Amino acid sequence: MIHDAQMDYYGTRLATCSSDRSVKIFDVRNGGQILIADLRGHEGPVWQVAWAHPMYGNILASCSYDRKVIIWKEENGTWEKTHEHTGHDSSVNSVCWAPHDYGLILACGSSDGAISLLTYTGEGQWEVKKINNAHTIGCNAVSWAPAVVPGSLIDQPSGQKPNYIKKFASGGCDNLIKLWKEEEDGQWKEEQKLEAHSDWVRDVAWAPSIGLPTSTIASCSQDGRVFIWTCDDVSSNTWSPKLLHKFNDVVWHVSWSITANILAVSGGDNKEKLHMQQPDRQP
Amino acid sequence: MEELDGEPTVTLIPGVNSKKKQMCFDWGPGEMLVCETTFNKKENSETVPGCPFIYIIRKDIDVYSQILRKLFNESHGIFVGLQRIEEELTGKSRKAQLVRVSKNYRSVIRACMEEMHQAAVAAKDPASGRQFSSQVSILSAMELIWNLCEILFIEVAPAGPLLLHLLDWVRLHVCEVDSLLADVLGSENPSKHESFWNLPGNTQTLTELELKWQHWHEECERHLQDGTFASSPHLECLCKIMLGDEAALLEQKELLNNWYHFLVTRLLYSHPTVKPIDLHFYAQSSLDLFLGGESSPEPLDNILMAAFEFDIHQVIKECSIALSNWWFVAHLTDLLDHCKLLQSHNLYFGSNMREFLLLEYASGLFAHHSLWQLGVDYFDYCPELGRVSLELHIERIPLSTEQKALKVLRICEQRQMTEQVRSICKILAMKAVRNNRLGSALSWSIRAKDAAFATLVSDRFLRDYCERGCFSDLDLIDNLGPAMMLSDRLTFLGKYREFHRFYGEKRFFDAASLLLSLMTSQIAPRCFWVTLLTDALPLLEQKQVIFTTEQTYELMRCLEDLASGRPVQGEASAQRLQEDLENTKLEILRLALARNLARAIIKEGSLEGS
């Protein structure tokens, strides 16, 4: 049973993961499908895969019921395990790479309620930061906010690192969506709680930035609802939810197209729905 | 979010039993992935799937059609041309120019249609032949609609000439029909009428024309009443038709291919001076009469009807739903927007309709490996979201060849998309490193202004040198120029190479000072000091004394620093340095330095010239 399938940045490769504990990578250029790699390393069903930005090379992360997160890398034409993270006490449900501007950072959400952040520091080393008890009972989804340089958007002189404010959203079994922000000391702090769901939050997806000051997050839940949260002004930090739709069954997955104009929603009623979302100013 | 005003189309994924299984999906850059799964995360999930396939769903398949590609290419030229002359479109000539643009678009559609038709005829198998033929019908319908829009919205034909235009329109699109009656319905009368209307340079007013026509019409009626044609039922029928008798016209239904042919004919004989605002009334009744309650209107009929009602937005909306790609509505809407017809309307989509359609069309082009370049221009002319859409799409273009990468970069640089430039250069640098093309990697990291990567590549260069004793990509390193300053390691690399050049050119004193400065200025990585000191040996062994006493003392200090294994933060461990600096080497260096010191002291202590 395939649990997740993800295209790489260019749509040339496909990574899939399955309950047979494998992660497979295919070359899908020109309509073909050639199996490039069959990666084994997990000891349980693999729930999700995520491609890192191509500027870091060909890197793929996978997370599994076996409580592990594995990072795979292609070196000299072959795929190998480059790192294994075992810091969780139960199933890791979701992995998401941060915007490439922040470096190579992976967020992982687990059923033990914790979220861990792995940062690549060079020479094969990864630094781990853990947020314990991010969500009681468990965390089901993590999603990064797009990178936006605060203040002026003028090109920074070379060599200087712009002051990004790193944020991500997480959804959990406490029916909440939480927004996390990295403080100056490098610690992660809960910035906001978004409450609207009446059952476990199954997925959150932060919409790609289209240059407007508005931020948008989509969330879906066991309660069958899909909400669109918008924040019109970063400084005010007030988020208002709008019910997109109430389905008759659990909604498992939400995902934005790359220009954020379509939201795809996968519901328990086994239909895939595409919603046109416009950056409109309507309430 | 507003409610949809129609049920969205359901696309079934073959092989997936939607009643039993769930689907997971993901967005690719231009497509969607869908596969069967189960979302309930339990350990013993079913290991045998009902459908083992993953489906890639694309919505812009027309991009891949060879023949349509010409349509996209040529219409792109017309589109860009229209945007560029916008400022020059003024006054009376404006309308004429816009009509000309419209006709250009139509001729492109017709050319494509013709080619598609040829393909249909030449098709090897019936299936593809049918496919081509259906494409021809679609293109034909598109041209039909566009032509009507041109007449009604762009040309804005006033009462009088309106009918003539409609006649042309019908004639152009109706297949050949042969019979006496058909001639009457078709070619004969219009020519009669042309002289009647006496265009261009029409000196008669509309009222005069109407009067004339009324007069003629009454005469015809009188003939009919008098039974002038009683002997010939044919002629009688003919007369009735010329009087615009609907029943008579309908009797000839087979010759009238469709309701709009019927409409125009009817108008010709009963209301030749029909005003645009009355048009929809006749159109509706023509449609109803023609269909006679037997069949219901097709999508094309609805579109044409909306046009006759001058409801532009309805036309666009219906076309969007009926057609498989955004080409038609995007270009037509853009043209109508230039005609200033789209402004004050409460749009369904909330934002600019023209821009929305252009963005959708352009996004579709990006799915294609070469047509994406056309898409760039479309994004350029979308003031609100064009730039950001371009930024998001252009990063996703696979950089399969250097040529393509350079093309993409040029486009980004022209638009000051520095973030994208940087990102792409980084990707290319990484790719080059992985393929061991260090020179390429270095130039990409310089272009990306990526200090960290430049350091990495420089390290590799230096490592290569240590292993092989020579540099690769000398040209590049020699001509770094100010880019050398990007990273310390890179500066060192450049300067080190310069040292070698000095030595090669026998500029020993320059070489010596440079070598020393490299060590004392902390630019040289500690692990490289051994190599540097070893490089100093030939200079120390020269007949003439090159290093001064001062310099020699410095070198000795460096050597002892190294030998004592004093660790420096961030550098390789002292252990390794010790191992590098084997005793023999150490001794050789110490000896050479001591000898040089001796000679230097003597030289400096002696008088000049001795």
Automatic annotation (TrEMBL), chain A:
- Which residue spans traverse the membrane? none
Q: Where in the cell is it found?
A: Lysosome membrane; Nucleus, Nuclear pore complex
Q: Which SUPFAM superfamilies match?
A: WD40 repeat-like
- Superkingdom of the source species: Eukaryota
SMART domains per the UniProt record, alphabetical: WD40
Q: Does the keyword section mention Protein transport?
A: yes
Q: What is its main location?
A: membrane
The residue spans of each WD repeat are 39-82, 194-229
Q: Name one GO cellular component term.
A: nuclear pore outer ring
Q: What does this protein do?
A: Functions as a component of the nuclear pore complex (NPC) and the COPII coat. At the endoplasmic reticulum, SEC13 is involved in the biogenesis of COPII-coated vesicles. Required for the exit of adipsin (CFD/ADN), an adipocyte-secreted protein from the endoplasmic reticulum.
Tell me the protein's name: Protein SEC13 homolog
Give the source species. Answer: Suricata suricatta
UniProtKB/TrEMBL annotation, chain B:
Family to which the UniProt record says this protein belongs: Belongs to the nucleoporin Nup85 family.
Gene of this entry: NUP85
Q: What are the alphabetically sorted keywords of the record?
A: Membrane, mRNA transport, Nuclear pore complex, Nucleus, Protein transport, Translocation, Transport
Could you list the residue ranges that cross the membrane? none
Q: Does the keyword Transport apply?
A: yes
Give one Pfam family, short name only. Answer: Nucleopor_Nup85
Would you tell me the Gene Ontology cellular component terms?
nuclear membrane; nuclear pore outer ring
The molecular function GO annotations come to:
structural constituent of nuclear pore
Record's subcellular location = Nucleus, Nuclear pore complex
Purpose: Functions as a component of the nuclear pore complex (NPC).
Q: What is its main location?
A: nucleus
Output the GO biological process annotations, alphabetical, semicolon-separated: mRNA export from nucleus; positive regulation of DNA-templated transcription; protein import into nucleus
Name listed for the protein in its UniProt record? Nuclear pore complex protein Nup85
Subunit structure, as described in the record: Component of the nuclear pore complex (NPC).
Q: Which organism is it from?
A: Suricata suricatta (Meerkat)
Keyword Transport in record: yes
